[in-house]
Queue: 2 jobs
Job 1
Amino acid sequence: MTKKLTPLIEWGTLLLTTGLVCFFLLAILWDLISKGSSSLSWAFISTSPTDGMTKGGILPAIIGTVLLTLITALIAAPFGICCAIYLNEYAADSWLTRIIRASIRNLAGVPSIIYGLFGLALFVQGLQMGTSLFAAGLTLGLLSMPYIIITTEEALRRVPNSMREAALAVGATQFESIRDVVLPSAVPGMLTGLVLTLSRAAGETAPILFTGVAFYINKPAGYLNQEFMALPYHLYMLSTQHQATEQVRPLAYGTALVLIIVVFFLNLSAFYIRYQHSKHE
Amino acid sequence: MSKTHIKLSATAAKLWFGNKQVLKSVNVAFPQNKITALIGPSGCGKSTLLRCFNRMHDLSADVMIEGDFLLEDQTLYNGKLSATEVRRRIGMVFQQANPFPKSIYDNINYGLQINNIPKDQRPGIIENALKESYIWDEVKDDLQKPATRLSGGQQQRLCIARAVALRPEVILMDEPCSALDPISTAKIEELILRLKKDYTIVIVTHNMQQAQRIADQTIFMYLGEIIESGNTKQIFKKPVNELTKNYVKGHFG
Ligand SMILES: Nc1ncnc2c1ncn2[C@@H]1O[C@H](COP(=O)(O)OP(=O)(O)OP(=O)(O)O)[C@@H](O)[C@H]1O
Ligand SMILES: [Mg+2]
């Protein structure tokens, strides 16, 4: 009797938790789509806000977020990946590497507002960049680096040693074995980590708060040395700080939906690269 | 060339993993164009010894190696030969087939590319290596197929092709048939026997019949030491040492 029941209970629990997670996900999506889709239009994503944010689109915020994410990726990915390669492939297992690894894990747990303050002190004031897109991108890059290091190292660790040995055995140097065999095998895992990290960075508000984001700019968007608008901050301002929050609520939902779509495209591109990759294996 | 020309040898080879000594003053010599079988119970250090010869321990941090390892008269460690040069001249086939996650063609091409073999020669070398390894007929129609989709036995023969394509002087084989069925095993044994005329072969095996079928010379190892070595017939029919006798009769290991 119990023999028959236990698997059923195990199966049921797992199904229930999975269902619950999916339910919340769908509920959020449904809420966003039902309330935000009415304000989505070509004009909404291709024009600037007008009339004190109550009308018009969110183009500058879209450009701001896309560029910000790009800068973050350009800064965090190369450094993070090189660091992970060093730690996993070259560094000996000494107390020093263990300390470095532990520090990186701790950095990943530092609240993002702390990064914001650090970015303010270092980039904005220390290096005199002023509040700007570039300073905010650097700050987000710093925030993302520990995640990229951790996920890349994880992906490298999953490449079996027999692959490294196979490359060495045909006369490859260690560098060649990493470049030609280890890294290509690790690409799908690295990509997943990268995209999750960037998705998170794209939605961050705290680190860019002091380093460059602005509620409204009336200049063309996209200059590295100027303040910029960003989707998450725009959303935050519309829903809490605007003098007519009720009136702009649909715009806020629209902004949220656009943010989700931007992140979705990011994931889609990673999915596509992984798919191309698996076809060639 | 005299019959007992020694191609590869180790003198007083000692190896430690951390502070655990795994090889205790091992002396071995592998004659040219002969097949030498390394036998012994699990954990006695056969793989460890084999991997010394193509410097596969280089990557592990806590390994210490002592002794003289010679290819012809050149020392493998700390001499004129670089690690990559050693590995090109001493090929290896691993216990688990480990093709690259690339196409069949690229699996062999990669080694050629790394070793700067001219582009126009590569297709010929690849075809030849696949033929030598008895896998050509099975793969010739789809060389672009991912190697990981081959069967285990085909993968192992591809790995042998990958090794022979570089024209090494010695091929080290670590239990190349341990994961294979009798038919694939027979194919690989036949292949090894054919390769003998061009290469010096060292093969680790747990299969006593296999050692007797293919090896000219057999070396019995136990707990990191060479207990007995000699002509395969003698080792199996008239072992001198008591341990060897028990092992080849299947009483332990
Ligand atoms: N990387 C390593 N670190 C520490 N000890 C190791 C390592 N590799 C092997 N050893 C130890 O060295 C000894 C010899 O191992 P080895 O793999 O050479 O045995 P083997 O004769 O090939 O055995 P098998 O027939 O099972 O393959 C074993 O006791 C093993 O535990
Ligand atoms: Mg072994």
Job 2
Amino acid sequence: MDMKRSYYRDLRLFDTWPLGLWLVVCAALLALVPFFAGNYLMYVLGYIAINAMVALGLNVLVGYTGQISLGHAGFFAIGAYATVLLAKAGVPIPLALVAAAFIAAAFGFLLGLPALRLEGPYLAVITLGFGLTVENIFAKAEFFGGATGPSVPPFSLSLWPGFSREQNLYWLIMLCAGGTILAIRNLMRTRVGRAFVAIRDSDVAAACAGVDLTWYKTLAFAVSAAFTGVAGGLFAFHLGQVDPTTFNLMLSILFLAMVVIGGVGSILGPLLGAVTISLLNLKLKGLKLADFEQIPLAGKEIAGFISRHFMETGMANIQFIVYGGILVLIMVFEPLGLYGLWIRAKRYWRTWPL
Amino acid sequence: MTALLEVEALEISFGGVKALHGVGLTLATGEILALIGPNGAGKTTVFNCISGLYRPQSGQIRVAGRDILGLKPHRVAASGIARTFQNIELFRHLSTVDNLLLGRHLYLKTGLFSGMALLGPWTPAAKEEMRHREKVEEIIDFLDLQAVRSQRVGNLPYGTQKVVELGRALAMEPKVLLLDEPAAGMNLEEKHDLRIWIEDISKLFGIAILLIEHDMQFVGELADRVIALNYGECIAQGTPDEVRSHPDVLRAYLGTPSAEVKQ
Ligand SMILES: Nc1ncnc2c1ncn2[C@@H]1O[C@H](COP(=O)(O)OP(=O)(O)OP(=O)(O)O)[C@@H](O)[C@H]1O
Ligand SMILES: [Mg+2]
């Protein structure tokens, strides 16, 4: 066999052709959704895809480079505000999104600088501080629309003749999410991505092999922030409003949870994590007492217990309790995250006697 | 012959403890120089100073006449110095090939955007990867690593991991190779292979080698010259036989098993 070709085998996009075929089919199905599905499904899928972009971006930092961030809601907010303000100023939406990526990346660089000296818990606190600062600046500054946030301009992009706003937006989100997957997958197979992973596994050895730790650590922050920023910009249109209170610490933690739940350091992991957390978010949002009564066997008792022991105002937090419980269960039973589950399932099917 | 690596009068202390006191050495092109001494003598500290991991309080370090003291580790690497570590420092989650490819980091050019745009064998990023993969495969063949080419190195046996680490250093095509106890923990057969590889690296590739090793037989077979350290000071230097029988060296090793020194 031609040696050059065989070296390329290790660089291919898909490890095996059945996997490639599967992905192409999935991508095609997702692309066709606007032609046969209603707005709600597009809304849900769009929401998942936006979260997936953040999870993939954050994973570059957390999973591949071995850093930590509790402030990614800040980059998400920066992307949202940048996109909206630029679009309002008349910049075409795709350009505004690209600009948002670069603006978020610039802030990523800035945040990456202290990260050079700090590790673990210290880095967590710095990034947490960053997230809180950004949230408060946006919420308090008149220029950014104060507590109500800026109004989102109409989504004027047309990708297919006759598409509605929702359909066009859905396609744009899917294009961006697909691009993110491709870009990060490729990045991780070449020089820059390898340097990231090298820093995670042994920063001393990486440095002694010629990797500039300063540059690559800050670059990891910037890359991570850029994808998160684009996702933030899309999120503003997806929701149709920019509410500064959404970009809070809870959101940063959920982003991190997506990466960890899914399994760090892979592409599929953060994707699975984003799907899980997004669906939990949507499903549990409107959780009411009546929903508990539907639980088989002990439904009445559980509902009774809740109404007896929780204050009226505490009811809204029940979703977070259920939520937290599910996250704990996943991590207890599969410490490697959902990706670990997938690996095990794959192995199981491979040894299945045919 | 001019010296390729010159180290002069290194001084470094950690919290009042003098780890190095006036240590100097020179290494000429094509030479194998061994650094010996009991545990805690300061051998690894010399390496760390050369690599730029530690900054000595005073002294000089030059490579091919160029001052590298105070440079960051990646700049030292770029000046032609590669090393291995006493306690293996591999990229455990990467394959052997990827560990070696990381060794090519200094020669690769693919940046952020061209990397993201690796969409087929015709793209510049793919071409570059394949070109350097060829160099990596040469090293894999040289070190007999074919069987573990695509395995994660974290799962490899200890001896094999040491060889992969040597491979990664070779992938950097250095002028000077620093080996910190390369034979430690290896069995006889592995040691035998390693000795031949180190000889070849020196003779065929013309790379100057600075070697830390406790196994005096190994040192005797390989090294052109030996320098003995104790408590951060040079106590003897010369041919392996001279140093081995030097009274100060014998005394330095008395606390530790002296059989090692006398074989
Ligand atoms: N980073 C550090 N902080 C504090 N002390 C250090 C540091 N590095 C080295 N030392 C001290 O310097 C001295 C020399 O250590 P070094 O690791 O160079 O010894 P060595 O000759 O390589 O020994 P060994 O044969 O055990 O590897 C020791 O006393 C050690 O405790
Ligand atoms: Mg040592």
